[in-house]
Amino acid sequence: QVQLVESGGGLVQAGGSLRLSCAASGRTFSRSMMGWFRQAPGKEREFVARIMWNGNIAYSSNVDVGTGRFTISRDNALNTVYLQMNTLKPEDTAVYYCAAGRSDYSLTWGYWGQGTQVTVSS
User: Fold this and answer.
1) pLDDT at site 62
2) Mean pLDDT (the chain, rounded)
3) In angstroms, rounded to a whole number, what is the distance separating the alpha carbons of residues 65 and 46?
4) How far is CA 6 from CA 63, 64, 67, 75, 122, in A?
5) Percent helix, strand, coil in the chain (nearest 5)?
6) Torsion sign over Cα 71, 57, 113, 96
């Protein structure tokens, strides 16, 4: 059974940093894309970042996410993907979800974690 388990969320002051982790189990994800989404209160879930099996990375076109504040990485040996978040802002407050491709080399998201809450206070 495939599971994605996020950790690392919490309460942080504006300007602070958090590092989210997503540990995958049930199969090897080294040949899968993996990524992060977030959902703020009252808003739809939005894409944050993804990293492909070959290391190719893409970030949201949202300027606030793609200006270097967030960095996605992966450790295939640990079947884990990370999201380093720096200079956090109150508008980054959301539940952050890890996602993985539904199969090797697939471009379709197929697995989701339960989410981890990130709250940024002003």
Assistant:
1) 79
2) 95
3) 11
4) 24, 22, 24, 14, 24
5) 0, 50, 45
6) positive
Question: Whose CA is closest to 85, among 116, 118, 39?
Answer: 118
Confidence grade of residue 66 (pLDDT, cut at 50, 70, 90): low
Displacement of CA 2 from its chain's centroid (Å): 17
Query: Bridge partners of 11?
Result: 119
Show contacts of 14-17: CB within 8 Å, 24+ apart. 14/88, 14/89, 14/90, 14/120, 14/121, 14/122, 15/87, 15/88, 16/88, 16/120, 17/84, 17/85, 17/86, 17/87, 17/88
Closest by CA position to 5, among listed 87, 120, 114:
114
